[in-house]
Structures are given as C-alpha cells and as structure tokens.
Amino acid sequence: MMSLFPLARDATAAKRAPALPPPSGCWRLAWQRPGGGEASLLITRRSALANAGLLLALLVASGVYLALGSVHLAPRSLAAVLVGGGDPVARFMVIELRLPRLVAACLTGAAFAVAGCLMQTLARNRLATPGIIGIDNGATAFAVASVVGLGVSLAPPAMALAGAATAAAITFGLTAGGGSRGYRFIVAGIGVGAVFGAVTQLLLARVDMDTANAAYPWTVGTLNARPAGALLVLGAGLAVGLAMALQLSRALSLMRFSDAVAQGLGSRVGCRRWQVLAVSVLLTGLAVAVAGPVGMVGLIGPEIARSLSCPRGVPIVASALAGALVMVLADLLGRVLLAPIELPVGIVTAVVGGPWLLWILLRPHRSLA
C-alpha cells in the first residue's frame, strides 16, 4: 500500500510556500486569521489612488465651502471655529448655517451618485440614472403630495421612498418583455418621469401660494434649511445602502456581461437585479426627501468616478466621493455666483449636467459592457 506521509509532507510544504505575487497594478494585503491560516485582499492601485484623490478634493472643497459666502472667513478664523474657538459671529456662520448645509450636500450627492452608478450598471447604459428614468420624479411627486396635504399622514421621506418605488415598479413593469437593459427601458422611464412631473405640477396648481412655496424645494432641488431629522435618516440609509452595494460588488461586475455569462459564473441574476434596484430606490428616495430632484448628480458623479478608477470594477466608493464633491461645488457656486441672490443647487447641476448629457449622447460608445 502506498504511504500517505509523502502527501502530508507535500501539503505542509504547499502551506509554507511563499504567496504568489499580486497581479500587475494591484496591492496585496495579507493577515493571519484568528483561527489559523492567512487571508488576503487585492486592492487596485488606480482605484485606491482615485479614491484618495477624490477624498482630498472633497476635503479641500469643504473647507472652501465653509469659508466663502455672504461673510468671508479667513483660513485662521475658520480653523479656530472648527477646533471649538473663534468669535461668536464666525461660529454662528459656520456651525449653525454652513456646516449642516455642507453635510446635506455630501450626503445627498453621495446617495444620488451611488444610485446612478447602480442603475447604470444594472441597465448597462450610462443614461440609465434615477433622474432620467423617472425615479426622481416619482419621489418628488409623492413628497409634494405629502406637503400640499392630500389627507396623507406620512412624512416627506417616507412618501419619497414610496414614490421612488412606485416609479421603479412601473418602469420595470412596462419593460417586462425587454428586461432592464437597452433603450426601451430608458424610454419607458422617461415617459414615467414625465407623467409624475405632470402630477407634481397639477398638485402645485391646485393649492394656495403659501402651500406651493412650502413644496417648492421638492421641485427644483435645494439644500437651504434642511431638517435635521431628514439628514439623520439619510445618513443611516446611505450607510446601509453603501454596505449593501459593496456586498453586491462582485455581482455588479458580472451584470455588465450577458445574463447567460453571469449565471454561468455563479451569479443569481434575477435576485441580484432586484437587490440592486432596492438599494437604488432607497438612496434616491431618501436623497430626494432632503434635497429634491437633483438628478444630474447621478449622471456626473459616476462618470467622473469611472474615468478615474479601474475599468474592471464598479466604482461604488469613488462614485459616492465624486457625487459629494459635485454637490458641494454646485451648491457653493449657487451661493456665491450671484450673491446675495442664491441659485438652487438643482438649477446649477442642470446647467452643468445638460452639456455633459449631450457629450455622452454624442460619444460613439455608451454601453457599460
């Protein structure tokens, strides 16, 4: 009988063999597991550098955002306020007025951009963002309905979530025969968005001026005087949505291929598609409940992230950072460009995002596959 000891010695030698070098363009992080054995993680250098660069740009933009406005603050005064000192006027301007608005800009921008990245990957098309396929308009219509008073007791965040889910369900239902990919899905979403947009205008036309003014932020997009409770709900929802999106990162990478290829590689395409849609609806509804329909961020943020990150993966973290950066810069521009007149952030992003959308349409390749 053949002895098993040589095989045991071979297995022991294989365990002690040095690890293979990481692929080109990657870093390998290895650590010992508590129960024994080694675990490792591959990090793409380009994506890591892109995330670091976007984070640094966001920090710089945040500092400029807090310093500029109707009252300009010197860097020394801003630093004194941030560490707990400074004069009362500067503290009021930064802590009470600008810092909550900056937090709202970062949270909503990240939520819109991550939702856009997920929807683009799901549909394999860069035009399939929540703003273009009608999810933003659905959330807006339901939020406005809760504000103008139609006998509905739910708060705007809950109504915005319901509206986003309704718009997504209608769009997917209309394209049940063609799936969630291709221009049929986008055209159906545009039609659904147009219907919900008309519903919003009808609701505003049938109420008094004061009520219409109260619902106005949910029609153009603004970050002025956002309620703290909505920000807390959005922050919690963004944390949950980011965690779920990162957990689905491998399935998202496989979704860029055909369904047959993804299933052959072990992905449950139908289940994963509904999970991605649920995360997109969650992030979009909560972001609209805070800032209104700032849809172009879901188009610009993922495009910036995709151009900077590794093309092999889905840039979820980079999209969140890029979306937050775009929202912060857009709101800063709206505050200082025509001061003391303030432009809503939704108008600024629409002016910037319109040419960007035309550029994407004129490019020869628009698929994410």
TrEMBL record:
It comes from the Bacteria. The chain crosses the membrane at residues 48-68, 102-119, 131-152, 158-178, 185-205, 225-246, 276-301, 313-333, 345-362. The keyword Transport applies. Keywords: Cell membrane, Membrane, Transmembrane, Transmembrane helix, Transport. GO terms for cellular component: plasma membrane. CDD domains: TM_ABC_iron-siderophores_like. It is found in: Cell membrane. InterPro entries: ABC_BtuC-like, ABC_transptr_permease_BtuC. It is a multi-pass membrane protein. GO terms for molecular function: transmembrane transporter activity. GO terms for biological process: siderophore-iron import into cell. PANTHER family: FERRIC ENTEROBACTIN TRANSPORT SYSTEM PERMEASE PROTEIN, FERRIC ENTEROBACTIN TRANSPORT SYSTEM PERMEASE PROTEIN FEPG. Belongs to the binding-protein-dependent transport system permease family. FecCD subfamily. This is ABC transporter permease. It comes from Halomonas salipaludis.
